[in-house]
Amino acid sequence: MPAHLKVLALVGFMLVVVATPREWFAAYAFFLGVLVTVGAVGRVRPGWVLKRMVVETPFVVFAVLMPFIAHGPRIEVLGLSLSESGLLSAWGLLAKGTLGVIAGLMLAATTTPQELVHGLERLRLPQQLVQIMAFMVRYLEVVTDEMRRMAVARASRGFVARNPLHWPVLARSVGALFIRSFERGERVHLAMVSRGYTGRMPR
Amino acid sequence: MTTPVLDVRGLAFAYPDGHQALFGVDLHVHRGERVALLGPNGAGKTTLVLHLNGIHLAGAGSVAVSGLPVTKANIKEIRRRVGIVFQDPDDQLFMGTVREDVAFGPANLGLRGEALDAKVTEALAKVGMEEFADRPPHHLSFGQRRRVAVATVLAMDPEILVLDEPSSNLDPASRRELADILRGLDVTVLMVTHDLPYALELCERSVILDGGVVAAEGRTVDVLSNADLMRAHRLELPFGFDPVAAAATL
Question: What is the annotated localization of this protein (chain B) (predicted)?
Answer without folding.
Answer: Cell membrane
